[in-house]
Amino acid sequence: MDDLRLLTVLAETGSLAEAARRLDVHHASAWRRLGALEGRLGVRLFDRGRHAYVPTPAGEEAVASARRAIGELDELERRLMGRDVRPTGIVRLTTTETLLRLLAPAIVKLRAKHPGIVLEVVTADAFFTLSRDADIALRPAVNAPEHLAARKLATIATAVYASHKYLERRARPMDEHDWLAPDDHLAHLGSARWIDAHVAPDRIVFRASSLPALHAAARAGVGVAALPCYMGDTDPRLARVLPPIEEMASTLWLLTHPDLRRTARVRAVLDLLAARLMRPGRHRELLAGDGVPITARPSR
C-alpha cells in the first residue's frame, strides 16, 4: 500500500522531496523504495528530469492501477467503518486554527457525553482527504464540495479592524490607511479578493499566510486588516473600522464522507458540533458579526 501511495503522490507532485514530505517519510527512504519497486518490476516507472519526475508509459499504467486500488481500499474502509455502531474510538477532525477556539466548550461536552471517543484535531488551512486523512472537516468556504455530506452551520462575517493605538496615531480617510493583506496562500478568501479589487497596491504594507498572523499585526498597530468578526470582535485591543462586508463573507460547513456519517462515533461528533454552532446564542452572533457597532475611534 505504501508503494502505491508513493506512485500516486509522486505522479501528482513531480517531486520526490515533496512526495516524501506528504507521506511523512525521509527523502532517502522514498528514493530507495522507488528504486526497489522498479527493480522488482524490471522497468523504469519515472524519468528523472532536471526539474521533475515524469511517469514513463509503464509508469502511467502503474499509477492508474495504483489509484484504482487505493480508491477501492478506501471505499472498503468507509463501508466497514459505517457498520460500527459504538460511539467509541478515534475521530479525526480537521479545521482552521482560528475556528478551534470556538470548539473548546464542545470538546468538553463531548468528553462528558462520550468518554469512549478520542478526538484528534489537525489544524490546517488546506482541505484534507476525508476518510483517509480525517473523518470530519469544519471549514469556511463559499460552497461545499459536491462529493461530501455537508451541513451548513452559519454565515461567517468579516469586517475591517485596527488597533486603538493605530487609530489614534493614524486618523485619516480609508483610502490612506496602511493595509495588512493575505498572501497567495489565502487567495481563496473573500477578503483577499476584496482587497485586490478595492485597495491600491501601494497601500499594502504587510502580507501574511495566515489569519492569526494578520490578527497579530493589526493588534500591534501595523495597519488595518480584514478579519473574521469572531476574531476581531473578541479582541478588546481592536476596533471596527468598516462594518462586515458582504463580499468577504463565507459559509461555515461541517463536512464528512457520506459513508462515514453512519459511523456512531463520527455521528456523535457531527451532531454535537452542529448543535453547538447552530443554536442561537453567542457563537452564532460572533460568527455573523451581529451586535457590534462600528468604532472609528477608541472609546475613552
Automatic annotation (TrEMBL):
InterPro entries: LysR-type_TF_proteobact-type (IPR058163), LysR_HTH_N (IPR000847), LysR_subst-bd (IPR005119), WH-like_DNA-bd_sf (IPR036388), WH_DNA-bd_sf (IPR036390). Belongs to the LysR transcriptional regulatory family. Residues 1-56 form the HTH lysR-type domain. The keyword Metal-binding does not apply. This is LysR family transcriptional regulator. Keywords: DNA-binding, Transcription, Transcription regulation. It comes from Pendulispora rubella.
